[in-house]
Amino acid sequence: MTFKGENHFVIVGWTAKSKNTIKELFAAEPKTEIVLIDELEKTPYEHERFLYIQGSPTDEETLKRARIEKAKAVLLFAPDGITNPDLADGKTLLTASSIERYDEGTESNIYTIAEILNERHVGNFNHVKVDEFILSHQSVSNLMAKSAQTKGTSHLFTQLLSRRDGDAGSDLWEVELKPEWKTYGEAYEALKNKGAQLIADRDDLNILKKWHDSIPKEARLFVICDKKTYQRI
């Protein structure tokens, strides 16, 4: 099978985590299309907007069939069957390296997100230009510690990470910059009046400390609100 569309998500590796990610992506956007790359004998998932491509993610022909150069993002998951974190991350790193090599021939700047088991390997993934990292074990450990220190914290993160409340639940969204927003304060007030809470510019959460600062052209503003509010914005 070969995928013919674009603006899809490519999932590399069928695991319990990637299965849940696929469900979340479909819940987030009804028109989402997803391509899974793995070496299973048959498709592990059935959906009208889901395509399974059998093959190695290190093989250029497999990546071409998934049309990763036209994807919104490529998500690399740590394999379930490898218990040694070094070996598991090594396999993910090899896939990331193959995607980087493929990307050089397309000049598409493929956006990749990788699950990493050992934080010490982050430098290696930076070397192959992975855009984002999810530190699998550390994320759970940090959330457990934070919940122990400040009871109820986990409920806040669960609310943002889950769509169990449907369109009425709060979620994290990126909003388009408006020409009339000259400072962060102006953006904050305008969004607040529409029912959205401005919380960050990229990974900077100190919006209130930058109230009078001008918003740079490269800014990416993130808000928390429900889906209907976001659609109005």
TrEMBL record:
Instruction: Show the GO MF annotations.
Output: potassium channel activity
Q: Which UniProt keywords apply?
A: Ion channel, Ion transport, Membrane, Potassium, Potassium channel, Potassium transport, Transmembrane, Transmembrane helix, Transport
- Its chief place of residence is membrane
An example Pfam family from this entry, by short name, is Slo-like_RCK
- Gene Ontology terms, cellular component aspect? membrane
Q: How does it sit in the membrane?
A: Multi-pass membrane protein
Q: Which domain of life is it from?
A: Bacteria
Where in the numbering of this chain does the RCK N-terminal domain appear? 6-135
Report the coiled-coil segments. none
Residues in the signal sequence: none
Q: Where in the cell is it found?
A: Membrane
For this protein, the record's SUPFAM superfamilies field holds:
NAD(P)-binding Rossmann-fold domains
> Which PROSITE patterns does the record match to this protein?
RCK_N (PS51201)
The record's annotation in PANTHER family points to:
CALCIUM-ACTIVATED POTASSIUM CHANNEL ALPHA CHAIN (PTHR10027), SLOWPOKE 2, ISOFORM D (PTHR10027:SF10)
Q: What is this protein called?
A: NAD-binding protein
